[in-house]
Amino acid sequence: MSNAEEKVEASSTAPPPPSPPWVELPAEITIDILQRLGTIEILESAQRVCSTWWKVCHDPAMWRVIDLKRVVCRSKLAYVLEKICRLAVRRSQGQTFKISIDNFGNERLLSYIASRSSQLRHLRLVKCYNRLSGGLASAAKNFPFLEELHIYFTSITKDDIEIVGRSCPLLKSFVLHASPFDKVRTPPSQDNDKAVAIARCMRGLRHLALIENNLTNEGLQAILDGCPHLESLDLRCCCCIDLEGDLGRRCSQQIVDLKKPRDSTCDYEFDCKIRHYRSFEDYCRSRFSNYNSFIVGDIHEYDYYF
Q1: Which 3 state secondary structure label does DSSP give 209?
Q2: Which of 107, 108, 117, 230 could form a disulfide with 135 if both were Cys (CB 3.0 to 4.6 A apart)?
């Protein structure tokens, strides 16, 4: 027998190489491990490792949590991130209960999520700025089980808050960190209107954070009157609130965990401090070194660089 024939014979009778040890793990353990990677890593890398992981990554249980936090759009175009999010939502087959979206959310995507995620309990939206355009109110009607709504650097209206409150009766935690544009464009009266909407339509809240908002003592008073179950209240960097006197004493007595306007933000995940801008142009100059080279109307093109 020739050497070539011997090699063929040996290869045909030799046992196949052993399977990687992780393929023997129960599916639920594999899912638990892979979910720690994050949505992008799962779709771009993990599912390609082996046929077992490919199968697990198509299991709807894999997509109960869709984590797209701290995604920087300079490394991926927004439309690519939106496609990734839509794919994850489709694979969940309605089982998703928690979604976190940073930097690329918009009205179309939120509508897509709402149409396929009626079991959603936790929604986090970061740096959508003014791209929701009423989409939150429309989507909320499909989230009857929503318990947590955390919104950062995203513009929403009083009407959005009212519809969310009426559509999501189980809501217990609401965070609204003002959009930087709202901070300089929104008068205190409008943020007081939002506070009144919270008091009237979110009476079951246990946890409320209104970071860098322009509400005044009038709005805070409405919240204390309308949300009797409130346990924690975060008012950091709300420069129009004065907690001296009776209102401050009432907050301390009624709220177990109270963060005051000038309390430290060192433990907060975003840059946050009390700022005073005289105009929208002052704000722009503080954020853009080349402000004078483009007009205010073009600022939306730089959203992802905040």
Answers
A1: strand
A2: 107
